[in-house]
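Reagents: none. Just compute today. Intraflagellar transport protein 80-like.
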Amino acid sequence: MRLKTWLLKEPKHEELVSCVGWTTADELYSCSEDHQILKWNLLSSETSLVVKLPEEIYPIDLHWFPKTVGVKKQTQAEVFVLTSSDGKFHLVSKIGRIEKSVEAHNGAVLAGRWNYDGTALITAGEDGQIKIWSKSGMLRSTLTSQGSPVYSVAWGPDSDRILYTSGKQLVIKPLQPSAKVLQWKAHDGIILKVDWNSVNDFILSGAEDCKYKVWDSFGRLLYSSSSHDYPVTSVSWAPDGEVFAMGSFNTLRLCDKTGWSYALEKPNTGSVFTISWSADGTQLAGACGNGHVIFAHVVEQHWEWKNFVVTLTKRRTMQVRNVTNDAVDILEFRDRVIKASLAYGHLVVATSLQCYVYNSRNWNTPLIFELKEGTVSLIQQAEKHFLLVDGAGLYMFSYEGQLISSPKFPGMRADILNAQGVSLSNDTIAIRDKRDEKVILLFDALTGKALSDGKPLTHKLEVVEIALDQCGPSTERKIALIDKNRDLYLTSVRHLGREPKICKIGSMVHSMAWNDTANILCGIQDSQFTVWYYPSAVFTDKELLPKTLYIKDGSEFSRAPHILSYVGTMVTLRQGDGSLVYSSVPPYSTVLHEYSTSARWEDALRLCRFAKVHRFH
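Predicted 3D structure written out:
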């Protein structure tokens, strides 16, 4: 994966560009100290002046009213907040009319951010105060008052907490007055920018110590970059939380959510003060110190399955390579590719307007259907069908392009679902409930209705990751889950009125995946790579379970490996530094599963005698 950047030969702004913000996937607004607000149209490559601000308004930050809100009056959604150095914030319409100016702080207003549902606005000032305002600009409360300027703020995923900078410290303050404030020293220099992603719940910070860091929402450090040449002036999460961008002087970097770098660009921009991602997460724009606005597209993403490697070569072009015979197919799309998934012999590609479904036996004639929303954030595949998730909901489709079901549940926020919290099999959809993370909601894939009399599965601790097994009849469907303590549990999905039996099968498990053709589970357990050849044995006799394990020393995988897939006998892992490694699992168990499901007992017995492995007897 890398960034393809472009800059105009001559900057359109005469002074430093302080902030940028997308209205649609192809339209961007930029504000500069030359008092101009410009509109950039990426389709026609035209730039036009929206408004020339009064001489006393020097813009610092802008944020568009959230698009996801079902606003009755469309005018409200076409407004952005603009903060300025004269202590005011301004509500500005799309055509550049200042609807309202509010005296907010002593000194400059350094940041302004709408919450996710557009019901509140937060501003942070040079005076060290953070204030919350209604969407019409009425003061609700002063959240905090400190001695040093607050350079950056971010809302928590549920809009119930605020993250802000305080010198070298980061502070998470809940909106409830009595709740506990979390504060920690994050950097050795003043923190300039923070961002908090609502999908993965991770925090980003960039500071004058020339480092960027990734944190979880408890303030634990997940990654610290090496020191750059210049202060890190901007950090920003892509909407789906899979990657983020970081900006510094003449520097733009694309990074994985775990911190390691995919790509480094050295454009002639001066410092990049703000980075803004488009809603579909395919492109970003940066506000540059030398008057430029830099644009970058994410290209060269890879998807692998068995003998196929698919690469996004351009925004609207994919290359499919069959590694067994080196045959290459080029796939062209009408619109830009937003998301893709390759598994079970099918490639599913979501563009901004359509969904393409390719069969791996024929790359020439895809099945194409229209999409309502152009912001698909997640694609999950099973053998018989696939799930699309966008800002509006979840949709189950067959590989023939027919809509099968669309599960719904109270408090559903589809835009914050991720691969760890959603799992799919041929007959079941499992979703971790974001409102209470101990709860797993289970739905019938074909009807979209809740399973087990509408009663969800409840664990005793918060669940971190879930995964449904892929094979066998629906009555025997199992779900594996990793909880906050990193313990791995297994339980059945359909338990016919009985209380579900949740059995622990492993501890210190950091990542897991089911095999695609047999109900075999693999996981990274402490410093070992473990395969549970027959995890269901735990329901029969717990003492049998250790006899069904295959354990391999995990030291060869370096730091913090993450399992991407388990296809056939091959497990693909991503290491902590971003490199891919592969590990093979002995094939006997997979074949034995195959024999037992088709009742070929003679062959099964012969295989056991041939393998002569003690755990088979």
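The longest strand covers residues 362-370.
Action item: order primers for follow-up constructs.
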